Amino acid sequence: MLSRRALTLLSFCLVSLLILLLTAARGRNDWSLDSSRYKHLLPGSFTPGNDIVSVHVPSSQPRDPACAHIPDTTNILLVMKTGATESFDRLPTQLMTVLRCLPPDNFLIFSDMNQTIAGHPVRDSLDTVLDTVQRANRDFDLYRRQQVCLVDQAACNKHVEAGTATAGWDLDKYKNVHIAEKAYRLRPGYDWYVFVDADTYVHWPNLVQWLRRLDPARKLYLGSVTMLDNYAFAHGGSGYVVSQAALNEMVAQNPGVGNRFDKKARRSCCGDYVFALALDNTTQTRVTQSWPTINGEKPFTFPFKKDHWCQPIVTMHHMNSEEVSSFWEYELQRYADYTLSLSSSSSSSSSSSSEHDPPPLRIKNVFHHFVKPRLTSHLQDWDNLSDDRFYLDPDAPPGAPGHGRTFEDWQIARAKKDYLSAQERFAHASWQNCRDACDEEPKCFQYRWQDGLCGLSWSFKLGAPAPVGKDELTTFSSGWNLRRILRFVDEMGDCGEKVPWPKVH
Ligand SMILES: *[C@@H]1O[C@H](CO)[C@@H](O)[C@H](O)[C@H]1NC(C)=O
Ligand SMILES: *[C@@H]1O[C@H](CO)[C@@H](O)[C@H](O)[C@H]1NC(C)=O
Ligand SMILES: CC(=O)N[C@H]1CO[C@H](CO)[C@@H](O)[C@@H]1O
Predict the structure, then answer these.
(1) Residue 140 lies in a domain
(2) InterPro entries, per this entry (predicted)?
(3) Residue 463 reports pLDDT greater than 50
(4) DSSP string, 346-404
(5) Residue 298 confidence (pLDDT) above 90
(6) Which of 118, 155, 404, 442 is exposed most, by the fewest CB atoms within 10 A?
(7) How confident is the model at residue 434 (pLDDT cuts 50, 70, 90)?
(8) What is the CATH number of the domain that holds 174?
(9) Ligand 1: distance of its center to the CA of 114 in Å?
(10) Domain with 358 in it
């Protein structure tokens, strides 16, 4: 007779065996790794004298069912930047969703202090900034304060007079080049390095499909182009992708690159800009425009139109925890069907894994899931961000809408003043007139009116609630020309087979 203890032990062994068998079967069905891609990264093959390139071994962890749709990511390192004032607001959701499916070796989190979040290391990116730059520099007040905080950071920051958001921002610009340097030193063997913020959403299935088409042995720096002082760089919040070749040259062949740009960072506005200067200076690599696939907007602010429709989406920005979570749920729901249909056919190991790829998620899919069900013809106390053309009267007489308010210079610059039709001449006078002006203009998809300012838009976006108005004049009114939107959707059709990935020359 078996004792109770032996029985328990036996059933435990059986259950473990069953789980092992199940996960092994699942592992074969993953969108498979093409190991030939690693060959060109073997030491010495393209960067003579480089001693720190290591070859990566795919992890054999059992896969989480929520990750069944995530293709092999082991040649991509995700590097997420945050700050101690926000890390606990943003990272837990990222770790439960977008980061959940990455093997722990595949991502690094950098901040402005050493922390752990639910066991995940968060690394201080600033400890290597030159002493001469840190000392007597108000930008580093928050950095120093955080380190002596006896309890949680939220409690320590609560009674600080200046906003911690601006203090966090002042520190942020010193991080990017050091993060790039530290990330490459810690994990030198990846094809691609993807740098994002903690409120950036990364859509992995598309990222993997896109990067598979590109050669990491070329010096590449991909992102959404922003201009500063006539210099083009990749916007950090949208995220930027740097190839092995570019980062290797910048870091491995330029020891101390972070410190060389500390003083420049102090005089600059932004870390993403300083990163671009450092990369350019050390490797002569300039940004390749990858917008709108790399994107600074999110589902509720996307300006849908021809250039925001068939394109696949890889990143979105300003996503709070709730938005990250809802997009993740959508992602799981969308790929559930593909995963099922793939699991029977993909067991033969084919190197052209692209034929097993699910169709990429395009911007229009985001419209259909998140925006279309929410559009109505008219909303009060709502700002739909209509700002392509304005109608306004800067000299509105007493009693007329817009009297006494100030218009911003950029609004006046975008105002139509000449050749006004009868309709347009009074578009600023009420939301109904503004709506009629939109209906009259063939390219207008939506309008917004408030206090003598009528805005029309050549794209459609959902927007956000506006401050509640005191009366009809101060109330924000927004509306959509639904007929025109549906006709556009119809005309664009299913976008065809060809996927407009960003052009990388
Ligand atoms: C953070 O941790 C790293 C690695 O353990 C260490 O080198 C560094 O000095 C720490 N930074 C601070 C400010 O304690
Ligand atoms: C890089 O910066 C250094 C100064 O730090 C400057 O002397 C050099 O000319 C720059 N190189 C390039 C290629 O811009
Ligand atoms: C909520 C929101 O983003 N509102 C924006 C609406 O558009 C105006 C310009 O037309 C911006 O100033 C607001 O910030």
Answers:
(1) yes
(2) C1GALT1/C1GALT1_chp1, Fringe-like_glycosylTrfase
(3) yes
(4) TTS--S-GGGGSPPPPBHHHHIIIIIGGG--SEEESEE----SEEE--TTPPTTSTTTT
(5) yes
(6) 442
(7) very high
(8) 3.90.550.50
(9) 6
(10) 42-374
Of all protein residues, whose CA lies closest to atom 9 belonging to ligand 2?
Answer: 281
Contact 410, 392 (CB under 8 A): no
pLDDT tens digits for range 262-296: 999 999 999 999 999 999 999 999 999 999 999 99
Q: Quick one: pLDDT band at residue 100, thresholds 50, 70, 90?
A: very high
pLDDT at 505: 83
Which atom of ligand 3 is nearest the CA belonging to 448?
A: 10
Residue nearest to atom 13 of ligand 1 (CA): 127
Pocket of ligand 2 (CB under 6 A): 260, 281
Query: Cα–Cα distances in Å, from 367 out to 263, 299, 308, 341, 438?
Result: 44, 7, 10, 25, 21
CA of 124 to the centre of ligand 2 (A): 27
What's the 14 CA to ligand 2 centre distance in angstroms? Answer: 65
Instruction: Please report whether residue 155 resides in a domain.
Output: yes
- Identify which ligand lies nearest to the alpha carbon of 128: 1
- Say yes or no: 345 and 387 in one domain: no
Return the minimum-mean-pLDDT range out of 17-21, 227-231, 237-241.
17-21
Pick from 393, 336, 335: which is nearest to 361 by CA?
A: 335
Name 478's Cβ contacts closer than 8 Å, sequence gap at least 6: 378, 379, 382, 383, 384, 386, 446, 447, 448, 449, 463, 466
Kindly give the interhelix angle for 321-343 and 87-96, rounded to the nearest 10 degrees: 10
> How many angstroms from the chain centroid is the CA of residue 360?
17
- Final residue belonging to a domain, choices 353, 374, 395: 374
Domain count within the chain: 2
The pTM for the full model equals: 0.84
